[in-house]
Amino acid sequence: MRITATHLSFHAQGRAIVDGVDLDIAPGETFGLIGPNGSGKSTLLRLLAGIERRAEGRVTLDGQPQRGLSRREVARRLAMVEQQAETSETLSARQVVELGRTPWLSALAPFGERDAAIVAQALRAVGMEHMAERCWSTLSGGERQRLQIARALAQRPQVLLLDEPTNHLDIHHQLALLRLVAELPLTVVIALHDLNQAMGCDRLGVMAQGRLVACGPPPQILTPELLRAIFRVGATTLTDPRDNMQVLRFHCLETDP
Ligand SMILES: Nc1ncnc2c1ncn2[C@@H]1O[C@H](COP(=O)(O)OP(=O)(O)OP(=O)(O)O)[C@@H](O)[C@H]1O
After folding, report:
1. Does residue 47 have its Cβ closer than 6 Å to ligand 1?
2. How far is the CA of 41 from the centre of ligand 1 (A)?
3. How far is the CA of 57 from the centre of ligand 1 (A)?
4. What percentage of residues in the chain have a pLDDT greater than 70?
5. Residue 202: HSE in the Cβ half-sphere, 13 Å Cα cutoff
6. Rounded alpha-carbon distances, angstroms, from residue 193 to 106, 138, 198, 199
7. What digits encode the pLDDT tens for the residues 114-123?
8. What is the ipTM of this complex?
9. Which letter, b or e, does each residue of 28-65 get, where b requires 16 or more Cβ atoms within 10 Å of its Cβ?
10. Binning pLDDT at 50, 70 and 90, where does residue 256 land?
11. 103 CB less than 6 Å from ligand 1?
C-alpha cells in the first residue's frame, strides 16, 4: 500500500512540531526516519497514523484520503507501535496480541479459529509463543515491546509504523526484528536512532526541527557532511570484511566543548 503525506504539519504551544512534510512511500518500501532527539519523528509517525486529529495537510492510503476513513477502516490498513505502548496489566501476552484482531471482528464475525491462528503466527514471528500465557505485568520491557509488534502484525495491516522498535531489545532481538521487518511484504515506516541499523532501510528521511531536510537511499544520506550538520558528530566509514558492508563509526567533533 502506498502512503503519502502532503504538506503535513502539526503545531503545539505556538510552534511547528512537524512543518510541511511531503512524503511518498511506495508499496513494500521500508522507509527509515532518522533525526536528533525532539526533531519530530514520533509526531510525524502519529500524524501518518491519523492519531493526531489536529494535523494540517493530508495523508492518503493508496490514494484514499485517510480523513475520509473510519478508525476501523484505517486500522484494517495501518498499524502503529508507539515507543511506550502500554495495555491493561491484567491481560495475558496472548490477549494483548488478540487485541490486534479487533478491527476485523464484529457481531457477525466473532473471534474464530482463523483469528487464533493469526495470533499464534504473530507470537511466533517475535519469538514469544512460549510466553503466551504470561501476564503482561510480569513481562520485561523487551518482551512487552516484542508483544506490541506481534499485536500490530496480528492486525494484518498493509502499512506498519514503528517508533524506535529496537530500543528495549537485546542485540539478538534487535537483529531478528530488523530482519523480520525487512522481509515483511508491507510498507514500513520505522523511526530509528541507530544509524548503522538505518543503513538497512530502502530509503531514509532525515528530520530536523520538524522539517524533512533530506530524503534518499542510505548511502546518499549518511554522508559525513550531513552527520556533522544534523547530528553534530564526525563519522568514519569502515568496511566489514565479512560481507563488505559499510559501517559507520562515530566520534565527537573537535569543536565540541
Ligand atoms: N503535544 C505536544 N505539545 C507540545 N510539545 C510537543 C507535543 N508533542 C511533541 N512536542 C515536542 O515536539 C518535539 C518533537 O517531539 P517528537 O517526540 O516528535 O520528537 P522525536 O524526534 O520523536 O524525539 P526522540 O528522538 O527524542 O524520541 C519535542 O520537542 C517535543 O517535546
Report:
1. no
2. 8
3. 19
4. 98
5. 14
6. 39, 28, 8, 11
7. 999 999 999 9
8. 0.97
9. ebbbbbbbeeebbbbbbbbbbbbebeebeeebbbeeee
10. low
11. no
Task: State the DSSP string of the chain.
Answer: --EEEEEEEEEETTEEEEEEEEEEE-TT-EEEEE-STTSSHHHHHHHHHT--TT-EEEEEETTEEGGGS-HHHHHHHEEEE-TT----TTSBHHHHHHGGGGGG--SSS-S-HHHHHHHHHHHHHTT-GGGTTSBGGGS-HHHHHHHHHHHHHHT--SEEEEESTTTT--HHHHHHHHHHHHHSSSEEEEE-S-HHHHTTSSEEEEEETTEEEEEE-HHHHS-HHHIIIII--EEEEEE-TTT--EEEEEE--TT--
In the predicted model, is pLDDT for residue 194 greater than 80? yes
184: cell is: 515483511
Listed in sequence order, the residues at least 6 apart from 187 whose beta carbon sits closer than 8 Å to its beta carbon are: 1, 2, 3, 25, 26, 27, 28, 29, 31, 158, 159, 160
Alpha carbon nearest to ligand 1 atom 24, residue = 37
- Residue 21 Cα to ligand 1 midpoint, Å, equals 15
User: Ligand 1 centre and the CA of 214: distance in Å?
Assistant: 19
Answer yes or no: is pLDDT of 155 > 70.
yes
Task: Go through the chain and tell me how many residues it has.
Answer: 257
- Specify the ligand 1 atom closest to the Cα of 17: 12
Cell of 128: 514469544
